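Kindly review both lines to help learners:
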Amino acid sequence: MRKIILPLLASLAVASPALANESRVEARGGVVWGGGNTEAIAGVAAGYDFDLGPGAFAGAEISADKILAGADNRIGVGFTGRLGAKLPIAKIYVDGGYTTKFCTFCDGNWHIGAGAEAPLAGNLYGKLGFRHYLVDNAPDANAVTAGVGIKF
């Protein structure tokens, strides 16, 4: 059984760029600012993109990000949808969704953003993203992140 499954999984990993729909996981880091504060942020995300034709896609993502400074900071869990275009050298997209609260005294918040993913080597990709957090009862916040991921 192992002689069948392992070569099959290896061929799927190599062939996945040709597949229409794709899963992805990534690690990212960057900076978040708002209300006069600027802090480092780090996180991970997993998602799935669906083809909408030869040049467009829609996707869903779940993420976990943490502001690295401060004892009151928590991991914010994001639920995001995205819509984008597939270009010859990259995928560009806009996204939006909801993020749970980043700190003990914060509220959860809606977010909107944009970004780009470009292939690095094989199934690896690099990513650059911007996100604006629409925070209730506090100044809005922004984040810029860069990351690296793998597509399946």
